[in-house]
Amino acid sequence: MKLIDQHTKAIMEECKARARAAGLRFEDETLEYVVSNRDMIELSPKGMIPTLYDFWANDVEVLKKAGEYSLYPHNPYETVINSRPAISFYNDNNPDWLNIMIFYHVIAHIDFFQNNAMFKNTWQDDFVGKGLADKRLIASLRTEHGRWLDYVLEFARGIDNITGYFEELRADRADPAMEPPKVLDFYFGHFLQEVVKASHNFIFAEVDKYNRLRATDPAVGEAIFLAEVKKRFPEFQMKFDKHAGGPRRQPVDLLSFLMEHSPFIKKEQNHWMRSVLSIVRSTALYFEPQIRTKTINEGWASYWHDTLFRQDERIRGHEVAYARINAAVTSVNWIGLNPYAIGLRLIQHVEEQADKGKLHYDFQRLAGIEQRRDYDLRVGEGKRAIFGLRQHFSDFTLVNTFVSQEFVDRFNLFVVGKRLNPQKQTYEYYVKSRKAQDYKQMLIDSFYHPARVEVDLEKTTDEHLHLRHRFEGKQLYKDFVPETLMGISYLWGGAVSLETMELTKKGFNQQTNKVILEQRPVAYTFHQGKLGKRNL
To answer: Where in the chain are the domains?
Structure first.
């Protein structure tokens, strides 16, 4: 892995200038690396974050991907990660014209990362630097605690998909309990001296760093300084909360609840576990917005690489090759879903609708097919509308708002069904529905939607942690329940109960050709190494 050469960097800078002229906004500092396919295979299990902590599951994934590559060799075009500065990786055998297309795609991703509201809690963070600090801490703890570190890491990762992402996103970053004067007094006057027991030289260096950061912009400088403090000292927030009289609000998810209230972790010899849980949780929160914006993010990048590259004179002589690659990336899959294709077409659809004034209320009131088809106020609001999508929308809100019958009909989209052919004894695919509502529901069902598991504070004691699954139509994956509860039981240091719903087959509706399901409340309990289950 190495930085791109100066010739290729100059191409990237030219692409940045043209992207800015088209209205994209992003920080000027970026890093671009040339990598081999082997590098891609080794980095992809870590989300392309080179500094992410080491874990055995990543090694297994590397072996799996190496096996896949030996059977099906392929060249990934690029990967970009949301960091400060933004970092992107490129295949080592791309020609210049292909790099131009890819650079436009990457720049649009960076623009999305740095302007979409779903990412607002990452805008001030250098996750690569934080990842390196976390990796060193994990390595140090593994040296000290051996396999117990990996057990805690495994158990924490078993519940890292139920972090309180939206609660954190909704929370005001300017926490009243963390006003700079109070927290800085605590940091310099107590934490460094009494908790860290830092040397005078270290404390003086910290004071100097704070003054330098604050010199240009006091508010921004203080925010950056405090972010770095929390990154270097994961236990700092907990210590300050205790000093200030307790946390401002109840923990927003199970991991944070275990970090703050687990009797087992509160034991002096187990305090190190809190740092591990904090690392797992912050890593999961970093990846959350990327998972929830896959379709709109890829659609946005595909829209701009197509728009900007077709306007770029450097495409001359490569139009056919570009058309083949672009079609392979953005073509609609009739079986399965291509987020590049759906995201791109939704953005194009919204742009056209806004240009014609079809997003206005007057158009929504029209019922006639011909009236709706011929409606065109020529208001030219398309670009403003799609930049609004980039700033405020996620995959769910994009699909739920703009997948209409007109969209489905315009791009000839449909829901595919699968059935058994009794004569040939083979499965066959067929067009199940062309209705917008069915297509929208299919897209929504394909999106990431983790379970909502909450702590029942009234029933929870030091000896027994009581959890409640907020049922939303999908039951928990039962094969994962025993191991997950075992891990939570270990981290709590006692019994764990989980109330949830399970779906059972009640019958079959011949008219709708659908299975009739019945909801049944159940409770799992893990205690002293044994899993129990009872109906409620």
So the answer is: 2-116+293-326, 331-446, 453-535
